[in-house]
Design brief:
Length: 353
């Protein structure tokens, strides 16, 4: 990957590429991209962990929540999960659905990674009710739930910085056979428009990530969803939080063998790259497209409201490795103050209901 990247950059017109282009290549290149290879990415043997892979209780809780909402709003029993990873969430959701409803759930999975598609095929029974799709257009018009867990944080982002009142775009270049940052005056009109729409004004020496792909994904969701809900689980900041002094360096980082890497120019193609989601931009864009904002919770608050405590079995079992003990520990890990869930938020949007 590193040799490919150097050659790709040196052959570009300015011998510089945007961070968005760099992230797209390192994560999604068909041969060398991190998400495209067969290396295990999620879990103890991978580079990071998601809440949906802690326990099946997460997927089961969301299934119960959606069942109640579908009954309340008279929605079809249909869900489209975008970026389903290993398929563990989908399996837990479907397994729980079978215990609470005699009617089957129609489950669509949109997944870009060939490796994860293969894992999903091993984890799930694909049939007329559980299908992998290649694009949202395949299910348009759709009624039901569009769900994603840590989708937007993996999108390519541009990086800009305010230096002495001038907005610069941070580029990636090659010097002395190494990948380095290079600064150019901001000329990208889409970025300027995003900043204007969002109302963000950077402080001096502050840098921030600009997620142009966020808006295109929201547009695709809105065009697909005719009637139903969008449930987005991710970590991110509001505009007010972006302006806090602790955020002056932005949020772009990598995860390599469960270690946070602040320089994402290291280990290209071998580590996950992520940045925090612009929550205000996501909500505002959704409202403009007819995906009307309903509520935003911390993930632990959402799970408590969804009734996860009902799953907590207080049966005493001296064996810490028993199924009951493991299940109870998983539930506590999802709702304990300061735990993993407190860093994630759940945003609910709706259309036509």
């Amino acid at each position: 990957m590193i040799n490919y990247l150097k050659d790709y950059i040196l052959k570009s017109p300015s011998q510089k590429i945007t961070y968005a282009d760099y992230i797209m290549q390192t994560l999604y290149h068909s041969q060398y991209g991190y998400y495209m290879n067969d290396k295990r990415k999620i879990g103890r043997e991978g580079d990071f962990i998601t809440t949906s892979n802690i326990s099946d209780i997460y997927g089961r809780s969301i299934a119960k929540w959606f069942y109640r909402k579908a009954i309340e709003l008279n929605l079809p029993f249909s869900i489209c999960e975008i970026g389903a990873g290993t398929g563990r969430f989908a399996k837990a959701f479907i397994d729980e659905w079978k215990t609470i409803s005699a009617e089957p759930i129609q489950y669509y999975i949109l997944e870009e990674s060939p490796y994860h598609r293969k894992l999903q095929q091993e984890e799930l029974i694909l049939d007329e009710n559980t299908k992998q799709i290649s694009c949202l257009e395949e299910i348009t018009p759709f009624e039901g739930l569009i769900f994603s867990n840590e989708l937007f944080d993996a999108f390519p982002v541009h990086v800009i910085e305010n230096q002495d009142g001038q907005l610069l775009e941070v580029m990636v270049a090659v010097k002395d056979d190494m990948l380095i940052e290079s600064f150019v005056p901001l000329k990208n009109e889409e970025i300027k428009s995003f900043l204007e729409r969002s109302g963000l004004k950077l402080n001096d020496q502050q840098r921030i990530e600009i997620p142009l792909q966020l808006e295109s994904m929201m547009t695709s969701m809105a065009n697909t969803l005719q009637r139903g809900l969008v449930l987005t689980v991710d970590y991110g900041y509001t505009n007010e939080e972006w302006m806090e002094p602790s955020r002056r360096n932005g949020s772009l980082r990598g995860y390599y063998k469960h270690q946070q890497m602040n320089n994402i120019l290291e280990h290209p193609g071998e580590m996950d790259i992520t940045s925090h989601v612009h929550f205000d931009a996501l909500i505002k864009k959704g409202n403009q497209l007819g995906l009307m904002y309903v509520h935003k919770w911390r993930q632990d608050e959402f799970l408590l409201a969804a009734g996860i405590l009902e799953e907590l079995q207080e049966n005493y079992d001296p064996n810490p490795f028993s199924a009951i003990s493991k299940r109870n520990r998983a539930i506590r890990s999802l709702i304990i103050p300061g735990g993993m869930s407190s860093f994630f938020h759940v945003i609910l949007q709706q259309k036509g209901v």
